[in-house]
């Protein structure tokens, strides 16, 4: 799964792609948009990841707005 940040949106969100499917989740973990075939187990993991790392995600959002490189954020391990 790849995760990107879109700085120009009115609502700060992360965009994830998995096997050609897309999902957009805001920084509070609310799903804004999801492809019909995005796997439900991946949705749950991504929401969990956003909730766990929200402070780091917000810091990266600020860095992106200042044209600075983003810091890595640990994946969920299971």
Largest β sheet strand count, sense and barrel closure: 4 strands, antiparallel
Question: β content, as a range?
Answer: 25-35%
Order of helix and strand elements from N to C terminus: EEEEHH
User: First CA to last CA: what distance?
Assistant: 15 Å
Shape: globular
Task: Trace the largest sheet across and list its strands.
Answer: 1-2-3-4
**Discrete helix count:** 2
pLDDT < 50 stretches: none
Number of DSSP strand runs: 4
How would you describe this protein?
This protein has helices spanning 40-52, 54-65, and strands at 2-6, 13-18, 21-26, 31-34. Strands 1-2-3-4 form a 4-stranded antiparallel β-sheet, covered by helices on one side. By secondary structure, it is α+β, with helices and mostly antiparallel strands. 32% of the residues lie in helices and 27% in strands. It contains 2 helices and 4 strands, in the order ββββαα. The mean pLDDT is 87. The longest helix is centred in the middle third of the chain and has 13 residues, at 40-52.
Q: What topology emerges from the helices and strands here?
A:
Layout: E1 2-6, E2 13-18, E3 21-26, E4 31-34, H1 40-52, H2 54-65
């Amino acid at each position: 799964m790849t995760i990107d940040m879109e700085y120009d949106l009115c609502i700060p969100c992360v965009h994830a792609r998995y096997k050609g499917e897309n999902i957009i989740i805001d920084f509070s973990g609310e799903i804004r948009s999801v492809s019909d075939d995005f796997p439900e187990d991946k949705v749950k993991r991504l929401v969990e990841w956003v909730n766990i790392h929200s402070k780091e995600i917000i810091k990266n959002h600020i860095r992106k707005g200042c044209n600075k490189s983003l810091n890595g954020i640990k994946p969920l391990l299971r």
